[in-house]
């Protein structure tokens, strides 16, 4: 499964985050203007539409290794 990840060390906390603007699923959260945005993985579909719009290249593609072949044992 793919997800977008905003790397906090690269994000400069733009007043208008372009990544938030393009996300159709409102998956980018920013609690206040002092806080950097972050991706809610439960909402992110992994479309990565946001990746090319960040001027700081702060969005990274994250691959979650979930094959669906293993079950929880409880
Ligand atoms: S556009 Fe990129 S650098 Fe600017 S606030 Fe959004 S994620 Fe951070």
Coarse morphology: elongated
Indicate the CATH class.
Alpha Beta
Please identify the oligomeric state. single chain
CATH topology: Alpha-Beta Plaits
**How many structural domains does the protein architecture include?**
1
Distance between the termini: 24 Å
> What's the overall average pLDDT, rounded?
91
Summarize the main sheet. 2 strands, antiparallel
Provide structural commentary.
The chain is mainly beta. The protein has one domain (2-63): Alpha-Beta Plaits (2-Layer Sandwich), CATH 3.30.70.20. The chain has one helix and four strands. The protein has one helix at residues 18-22, and strands spanning 2-6, 28-29, 38-39, 59-63. It has a two-stranded antiparallel ribbon. It has a two-stranded antiparallel sheet with strand order 2-3. The radius of gyration is 14 Å and the shape is elongated. The two termini are 24 Å apart. The mean pLDDT is 91.
């Amino acid at each position: 499964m793919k997800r977008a990840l905003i790397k906090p060390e690269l994000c400069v906390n733009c007043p208008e985050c372009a990544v938030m603007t393009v996300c159709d699923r409102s998956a980018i959260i920013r609690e206040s203007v002092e806080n950097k945005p972050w991706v809610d993985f439960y909402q992110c579909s992994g479309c990565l539409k946001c990746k090319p719009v960040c001027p700081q290249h702060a969005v990274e593609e994250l691959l979650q290794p979930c094959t669906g072949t293993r079950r929880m044992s409880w």
